[in-house]
Design goal:
The chain is built from 16 helices and 24 strands. By secondary structure, the protein is α/β, with parallel strands linked by helices. The strands form seven sheets. An eight-stranded parallel β-sheet has the order 13-12-11-7-4-3-17-16. The chain is globular. It binds 1-deoxynojirimycin.
Amino acid sequence: MNTPKRIDNAPTANGYTRKWWKESVVYQIYPRSFKDSNGDGIGDLKGITSKLDYVKGLGVDVIWLSPHFDSPNADNGYDIRDYRKVMAEFGTMAEFDELLEGIKQRNLKLILDLVVNHTSDEHAWFAKSRQSKDNPYADYYIWRPEKEGHEPNDWISFFAGSAWKKDPSREEYYLHLFSEKQPDLNWDNPDVRREVHDLMKFWLDKGIDGFRMDVIPFISKDQRFPDYPKDFDGRPEYIYASGPKLHDYLQEMNREVLSKYDVMTVGEALGVTLEQTPLFVDERRHELNMIFHFDLVRLDRQGWRWKPWTLPELKAICARFDKGLDSHSWPTAYLTNHDNPRTVSHFGDDSPEYRIPSAKALATMLLTSKGTPFIYQGDELGMTNYPFASIEEYDDIEVKNTWNAEVLANHVSAEDYLDNLRKTSRDHTRTPMQWDNSPNAGFTSGAKTWFTINPNYRDINASQALTDEHSIYNYYKAIIALRKKTPAFVYGDYADIDPEHLSLFAYTRTLGAESYLIVLNFSRNEFSYTLPGGLKAESLLLSNSDSKEENTTVLHMDPWEARVYSL
Ligand code: NOJ
């Protein structure tokens, strides 16, 4: 039996500086769809407060709250009209303060969504900015004259069409990398940066614990606004994320704001390569703590198109990211969020037979990963993709705009687009939380909900999960608890023991003398597996099956079986 290496008081572990945010597990709440308290069919802050014991019960440490600010909701709150006001549908500032209080009382932490690449076009700054070319807000956004009768350049928006929109009052174009209701702020204007720093302090001074930063790599723009290069590969994010002043602005933000608080930051890093990652998160540079990469969650994507993926491809991404970062940089681990399909439908098997074991296998992978794990609401219940049948059932602005630009313009057939969306849509994770089997899944007491509820809520819901000792929820609880007492899962070295195996994901995590083996069957097949290199699976610490195999070099794996051994 190995003697566990104690790290409780050590300032470093395996070369990493120890930090609370490295050892935390984060739970993401999408407020619109979490819990409604007043019967209007829209989730709200009081609803979240009423469910804090549920969240705490899971064993997580930090809540990431998707935007709760005043917004006209063109993009479900990622278009902010007033950064210092709570969205009326979600409640009041007093209710936010109560939520924060409830979070603190339970020894949890809260991070907010900082959406400052763009605002809503209904923000007071934009209303003033569009009025004239010479008022104090004129340069808060990115305005350019037309070029030879056209848009200033050929940039496209992520939500289809040109990234420029002509404004009749200024007779100029403004830039919007997302919808035309989300104009991009001009970060080259020091007044804009000061405003952002101030609003960050406003929330930090209330006692929040950090930020998830929306598309933060896009804040600096090449002011020459060149057209795409000749060899442009159709992925504008790699161009938008490489602005010339980006790291100056992040360092300034750190100096002016973040360094003054004990907080965590995680940047959403669309368009950032593995090689560029240390520029954001190497702790000696004082920018951000962590970033989210898209490589794993988008391994089966080409724009809105779905493409088949294999387990060796997934494993190769994990290995590449592990090798590519040294101990000065800290990774994140996530399998979905509000912009991706449901984890079990995406990487697992959501058929009635395999939904439960595959959701547990994926939980095992997530919670034995190096890096801070992020769980998305409802994944702990094994919530699945919604069976969307027609375009009318979708809500997402990205879907609607792409439908107009691709299908209505006859570039793509309706079936082709809908077939892909069924696998890829962001709306799958935005259906309301399934709390119990009462009408509307216990999400609201009202007759209507803002978005459709998955009909499988009668079987898949929190009330069932809490009482069933074999539920996915209880498995999450167990694997989170195991992570908490096993520093090797947080800081240990990672080694994939069989990268080419088509069905088995098997890896070790090692910290000093402590070593663990994780084996995950990513398929419906049963098979025997002989551990390579003289490895022996010793004590079984956790599994999603009845298997009791221990002290063995040969494993008999059931479909979607997951086991965690000490070595
Ligand atoms: C990323 C957010 O996660 C997504 O939901 C949003 O649509 C875009 N950024 C624009 O803010």
